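Note on ligand handling. Small-molecule inputs were canonicalized before submission; formal charges were left as drawn, and no protonation-state enumeration was performed. Where a ligand contained multiple stereocentres, the stereochemistry in the source SMILES was retained. For zinc ion, this procedure yielded the string shown in the input block below.
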Amino acid sequence: MLINHDTRCALDCVVDLVNSAAQGSEPDTLGDVSALGRFVERNAISDVRTLTRQDLTAVRAVRARFTDVFSAPDTRTAAALLNTMVAAAGTTPRLTDHDGYDWHLHYFAPGASVADHLAADGGMALAFLLVAGERERLRRCSAPDCRRAFIDLSRNRSRRYCSSRTCGNRLHVAAYRARLREAAR
Ligand SMILES: [Zn+2]
Ligand SMILES: [Zn+2]
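Structure output:
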């Protein structure tokens, strides 16, 4: 699957957003406006004006929509969710080469709020994945106490765990044990 750099960044941003929600014993990491500021900075989201409490509420609502897309039971449901999201965000495709980046498309409308920006660009990135027949790459970590969202970009779609250190280790430990069992035969 060919994924260009901008789509990749938008997908990473969606995953970061979905995983900011409270999960099990993990708290919500988008708790206040300054946390939203760190999220915006970490994901290098461009053209963001001064963030407000309203932005926080709106971004959390968009987060819930993305979470729904991740858990959609089928492609038709995911498509309907994305259509609603992208339409509500007032998507406006626009070529740009801002900040020294190569030419790429922005989908958020000029002057869009950060929530609309995320819904437009993240929504379109997921839409491309869906169109490519790759919706099943939207996954949740198989570790029972984790369930973090991730996008499996491996060639054979075999990734089962999120990229967090503990779950990655779990995978290595399991592989190590399997090798030991193999060697003991
Ligand atoms: Zn850009
Ligand atoms: Zn995990």
